Amino acid sequence: MHAMMESHDVSLLDQERYRLLVDAISDYAIYMLDPSGHVVSWNAGAQRFKGYEAAEILGHHFSRFYTNEDRLDRLPEQAIEAAVAHGHYESEGWRIRKDGTRFWAHAIIDPIWDRNGHLLGFAKVTRDLTERKKAEAELRLSEEKFQLLVNGVSDYALYMLDPDGFVTNWNAGAARIKGYTADEAIGRHFSHFYTDEDQGKGEPERNLDIARRVGRVEREGLRQRNDGTTFWAHVVIDAIRDESGNLIGFAKITRDVTEKVEAQKALTKTREDLFQAQKMEAIGQLTGGIAHDFNNLLMAIMGSLEILRKRMPDDPTLRPLIDNALQGAERGAALTQRMLAFSRRQELNMRPVDVQSLVAGMMDFLERSLRSSMRIETRFPPNLPHVLTDGVQLETALLNLVVNARDAMGEGGTVTISAERHQIGEEGGKLRSGDYLRICVRDTGEGMDPETVARATTPFFTTKGVGKGTGLGLSMVQGLTEQSGGMLSIESVRHEGTAVSLFLPTIDEEDCPKEKAQAPGNGEKLGDRPLIVLAVDDDALVLMNTTLMLEDLGHQVIEAYSGPEALSALRQEDNRIDLVITDHSMPKMTGAQLAAEIATEWPGLPVVLATGYAELPDGSGSHLPRLPKPFSQQQLSEMIGTVTGTRA
Questions:
Q1: I need a surface site. Which of 70, 173, 276, 518 has the fewest CB within 10 A?
Q2: Cα Rg of the chain (Å, integer)
Q3: Taking the mean position of all CA atoms in its chain, how far away is CA 457?
């Protein structure tokens, strides 16, 4: 009997402990229902979740925790029936607190049976999962937003690769840039987007290997679209790992930067062209200045040698020395003309030129300039338009090109001179839009590499060796074409030959201004008697040389070293001076400015400008007769006869 009482006490003690345990739990609502679903017990967790005190809820049906919609759908009754039928019922759904607010609940209902199998009621455990539900909803919303963001990006190809490099997803940007739909791309190995050359070099595998080892790889290169075209891509590949550090795939971002790269190339090319233009302009100014000053020196040398040859005794041992010195000076003069041509400061006689007739007229000379083992051909279609340029200078340019072709071909080969019409559009680069004639001199020689082509027109650059060329031939040709409003172009392939093209603007012969005929005068003729000539030059050597040549021709010379000094001399001579020959480039007052003063105060007095420049800085004096430096006594005499044949 005593043992039975002890056993009963222990059972009561266990039950009390169990009750205290259940009542102490606050994270779970644990309570009992009778067989009909009325609440018969209530713990602290249930009070906290649902807001009811035990006295407020005991005896009430548990359906009051359900929403109206669920009650109308008989979910409380169905839950009890399911628990009885299956021995357990578990569900999630919205439940109602005392204050009417909702919370997301996870509920378990277990039936309780006695030893005889009679239903005593139900044990109900409910957990508030509102925070988890909210977090899941926020996570799902975040994932949806992220997916929408990724799919909405059209400027970047964003997609994932599995650890072996196969595509697992594909966004709209990838479809736009690469040209594959998601169905076409997913499951395909990403190396398919590389060019055949990069695939052959193992570039895709190398990039994945770097990303595996380092975690990230960034590259730029050509990639291939679905239609076979290529584009310049900026690519980033990031390795994706789980919490344990295991590789689960790669995130790949690709951007089409073709326009950016092309723009950068265009900017670089523009900068290089600008630098080259500035360099050539600086060289041109320096070369033109040197040529002008050198012309003055040659003027003194050639003039003095000519006078010396006329006045020295006829000694066969001395005359060859004078002739040799004159030939050297003439070669120097030719060199300065090339320098002036390069610097675009030479005197050009711009006229319509029939290129086919010009080449035909100089064919004998061109053929004699080649070796006997070489031949020359011409290809001219009918009805070619005329070009506006200096015909004599164009002949010299073509001769230069033919001689260059001869030197490039060794012992044998063919030189072809051709011409064709060429239309330049709005994007013509250096040339203005319009009609041009492309004159091409092509050879079958050894050709040039790209570096040599780039330097070919640089002044004084030559591949002919020491003493075999001045390096100004192509520079002179370039100067002529650009001064004529055109352009020079060189195409060459090593061991396959070279083609040099001159682009010159075309012109209708009827549109070219005709040279005005000299009106015959009735005044006094000056060409038949000695003249009084005012010679003006700031260089004493040149002035002395000009005076010697004029006096040797029988004229009287008055010298002046500047424009103001010349005006003073004119006023003192009281209109006795018949002709003024003046240098143009002088300090304080240029020759053109002096001529303008003379035209105002002594109208009708002939003025000749002696200069090595074709362009006058102030734009005046373009109507005046020009005597190019260095000039010979014969040229001086002819110019005097031209300008003083009549005087109004």
A1: 518
A2: 51
A3: 23
